Amino acid sequence: NRQIILAKRPEGMPDESNLVLQEGAVPECGDGQVLVRTIYLSLDPYMRGRMSAAKSYAASVEEGAVMEGGTVGQVVESRHPDFNQGDYVLGRGGWQEYSVEQGKALRKLDPAQAPISTAVGVLGMPGFTAYAGLEEIGKPQKGETVVVSAAAGAVGQVVGQIAKMKGCRVVGVAGAEDKCRQVVEAYGFDACVNYKDDDFEKQLAEACPNGIDVYFENVGGKVFDAVMGLVNDFARIPVCGRIAHYNDTGLPPGPDRLPAFMGKILVKRLLLKGFIQFDYIHRAADFQRDMSAWIREGKVKYQEDVVEGLENTVSAFQGLLQGKNRGKLLIQVGED
Ligand code: NDP
């Protein structure tokens, strides 16, 4: 059972000295449990937080433990009445080839309904994040301008497509020309701006002639600063992620801009609300119904970036923190 353990907490960008591939035993399956062979491992930005000891909304992974992660796999042995050998399941098997999970924590997947990989992508946690954050906090109205950062990624691509369906002007922000092209051509955004361009602020202002009513925040950093210069009165900002800061080891150098920022929140009467997708778990059934229909009807498109082999997980995860992924990042751990 090849597995990747968190050997040592990273400072800055994690690498193979922090995340070590080792051979472990295939775990024993107890009563009520299921032994699962991993097919897809989902790689997600939140994993950087789990590697850190800093207090957060979920406990850190212990040093020496297998890294956590959402997985799609196939049942090898079941000691739970709801599962049989060969069933496809969604679980949290982590960065390894075989895992034992409580049957009650698994969800059975029907490969006839949708490709099984989508259970950790557009029909899973990232898709739900987009849906919940936009509907519950962003509340975009017809004719408004919605901006989303990390626009070509797992969450961003879905945010923009839902906002388009609601009749908004949708502007993406991404870090590469091909990503910007894809966001406009494949996902139907009205415009997409590359934040790495020298005149990014100017391009963003031109793409948002009526200002910004909803900003779906995925990154922080210079994108957030540029957006704040363009927000309209009563703008809503679902604070979903801050990936530009996940490898930070300290505060940025001054000057302290917090008073100016608080002033802007007051004068513009902004709503900024942080959320973790599970806060809206009561909307999960609505999401499954709506998103399945949108995919079936071709209203929502998606792209997955599948990297072969557990041994490539660490470099793929580094790539995710550097924008190398093209769509929802998955590791193909075993055959499907
Ligand atoms: P993506 O598929 O979007 O991949 C991450 C992308 O982030 C990269 O491809 C890169 O795109 C961008 N990025 C990386 N570094 C920077 C940087 N320094 N500045 C700007 N952009 C950067 O990941 P997800 O869609 O899975 O996640 C997107 C965000 O949503 C993350 O912040 C994540 O933490 C958050 N999230 C929050 C959840 C919640 O419950 N609150 C749940 C799920 C995700 P580019 O080339 O454009 O730079």
Automatic annotation (TrEMBL):
Keywords, sorted A to Z: Oxidoreductase
A GO MF term: oxidoreductase activity, acting on the CH-CH group of donors, NAD or NADP as acceptor
Name of the protein: NADP-dependent oxidoreductase
Tagged with keyword Oxidoreductase: yes
InterPro entries: ADH-like_C (IPR013149), ADH_N_2 (IPR041694), ER (IPR020843), GroES-like_sf (IPR011032), MDR_fam (IPR045010), NAD(P)-bd_dom_sf (IPR036291)
Organism (species): Alloalcanivorax xenomutans
Record flagged with keyword Hydrolase: no
Gene3D superfamilies according to UniProt: Medium-chain alcohol dehydrogenases, catalytic domain, NAD(P)-binding Rossmann-like Domain
Domain Enoyl reductase (ER): 12-331
Domain of life from the UniProt record: Bacteria
PANTHER family assigned: PROSTAGLANDIN REDUCTASE, PROSTAGLANDIN REDUCTASE 1
One Pfam family named in its UniProt record: ADH_zinc_N
